[in-house]
Amino acid sequence: ELYSKLLYSAAGIEKFKDPRYLWLVGERIFNLERAFIARDGFDVSQDSMPERILKEPVPREPSKGQIFELDVLLKDYYKARGWNERGIPTKEKLAQLGLSEAVNELYPQ
Question: What does the CA dihedral 55, 60, 61, 64 come to, rounded to 10 degrees?
Fold first, then answer.
């Protein structure tokens, strides 16, 4: 809520009063960026996590002692984001965010 108040105060744009709108804007930006890099030849092998996450055991519960595998982490992350198994936003996700031009670009008919 603080960010929405600050942004509204600075820009004076009425929609910025709503923190949910800012969340939507951020989600759209993130997915649009991902769509651009997918269009330009992004490959899932280029995705990574910080080395520490993959080599050091988790220090706290509920996963204490566990060492994560990159492929499992990415699979779960992609699913949570609404992306396919290759890390590309699905048609449905892009449409949900109102990014129809990105749908047409990534999934030409």
Answer: 30
The CATH class that applies to domain 27-106 reads mainly alpha
Q: What is the mean pLDDT of each run of 10 residues along the chain (109 residues)?
A: 86 88 94 94 87 92 93 94 96 96 91
**End-to-end CA distance of the chain, in Å?**
41
Domain chopping of the chain, boundaries: 27-106
Distances, alpha carbon 8 to alpha carbons 13, 29, 40, 57, 97, in Å: 6, 19, 35, 42, 22
> What is the pTM for the complete model shown?
0.80
